[in-house]
Amino acid sequence: MRMRKRHNLAPRMEACSAFLIEDPAAMRGEWLAAFPEQNRLYVELGCGKGRFTVETAKREPDALILAIEKVPDAMVLAMERARDAGITNVRFMDFDAANLPEIFAPEEIHRLYLNFSDPWPKSRDAKFRLTAPGFLRLYADALPLGGEVWFKTDNGPLFDWSLEQFSAEGWALSQVTNDLHRDGPVGIMTDYEVKFTAEGLKINRLVAARTAETKTTAAGPVPRLRNAALADARGGGAPGPALRLEEESLPLCQAFFKALKQAPELFEKPEDFRPYEYDPARVDAFYAARKARDDRKDYVILLGEDVIGELAIKRIRREKAEGELEICLTCDEVKNRDFGSRAVRLGLERAFGELGLETVLADTLLHNTRSQRVLQKNGFRTTGQDGRFRFFRVTKEQFHRRFSRGEGRADEEG
Ligand SMILES: C[S@@+](CC[C@H](N)C(=O)[O-])C[C@H]1O[C@@H](n2cnc3c(N)ncnc32)[C@H](O)[C@@H]1O
């Protein structure tokens, strides 16, 4: 779905903030406890403008409906619809479905809706389809035995492919149809469904139930670790080496670039991706040029004695007490392990502490949802996006409020 950028996104979000869950990870395992009037949890992935979400919430007042959407420009319309409908059993999250385990405990969801999910037609993008095996295993973790995924799409190839994935992953299929509305409208229609049905397109639907044979993430591969320090950090419940920031020196800058393996997701166009090759002369010159500036502060991120990334507070505008945060981890092995989030927290402590800033900005490429999550976990809020970037901002007060709930201090102060 291509959405027009909404310039007034922030005030509109604010106006219906009662429906927004800003920190869904804090609710993990507690969703129904927080909504005592509801007795079951339904989750919709990719709610878009929310027609289905709001109508389902109206029709099922005993269910808590959680709508997940990674494009806030669409989600704000859904939130406004919920507010205007006067319902109380629905909440929205600006979140990527790929991170589902962060916000739902095992077996916490009773039913999961996938409505007109993006088809990702190129086979190299198949892993992004919300019915890809990697996603199905996340759903299996979060549903109890017998818990169901309800899937609808107008896209025939996606539907056929999804049927194969559900079967191969051990789900029990029922209510499979290639023409849901053949004998008249069935169930609640989504925004896309209303449009496609009016155009005469047929709607495919299936229900998939989790069985004892359904594969969960326990069947998935365990990523390989780079070195001993990382192995310690993961291993056996024992506390790993501390993560800390250290002001960048030439040897630390060199160590960062020696460990750097560029990832395709850091490039706007995948075809621009080239593996990084260490060039001592260029790195030394780069370091000298950075050091000559007085509007930035550079740190490396250390895990034990390993340099695993760098973090900068750059474009510091002292008159506005404002700067921009940038972070780069060296390689895939250190991603998805919470190191990025913890390092950003340490960086913000420096920015709001020793650097005396009041506001920190950041941006990410639109498709880099992993970095977006890292920022959101640290209190950053979306302020908008253009065709290439998504923009974020956090104030000192927002940051301190987020971490004032006794969650423990960041590593280097602990
Ligand atoms: C084609 S639209 C369908 C919207 C709505 N379900 C409907 O039927 O009208 C797909 C929606 O899913 C959202 N989406 C796609 N992948 C997602 C993901 N991984 N996490 C959260 N939302 C996602 C997109 O941003 C988009 O709004």
Task: Provide a descriptive summary of the structure in words.
- By secondary structure, the chain is an alpha/beta fold.
- It has two domains: 9-219, Vaccinia Virus protein VP39 (Rossmann fold), CATH 3.40.50; 228-413, Gcn5-related N-acetyltransferase (GNAT) (Aminopeptidase), CATH 3.40.630.30.
- Helix content is 30%, strand content 22%.
- The protein has 13 helices and 14 strands.
- The strands form two sheets. It has a seven-stranded mixed β-sheet, sandwiched between helices. The protein has a seven-stranded mixed β-sheet with strand order 8-9-10-11-12-14-13, with helices on both faces.
- Helix 1 (9-15) runs parallel beside helix 4, helix 3 (51-59) runs parallel beside helix 4 and helix 9 crosses helix 10.
- The longest helix has 14 residues, at 72-85.
- The radius of gyration is 23 Å and the shape is globular.
- 37% of the residues are buried.
- Bound molecules: S-adenosylmethionine.
- S-adenosylmethionine (SAM) binds at residues 1, 45-48, 68-71, 74, 96-98, 115-118, 190-193.
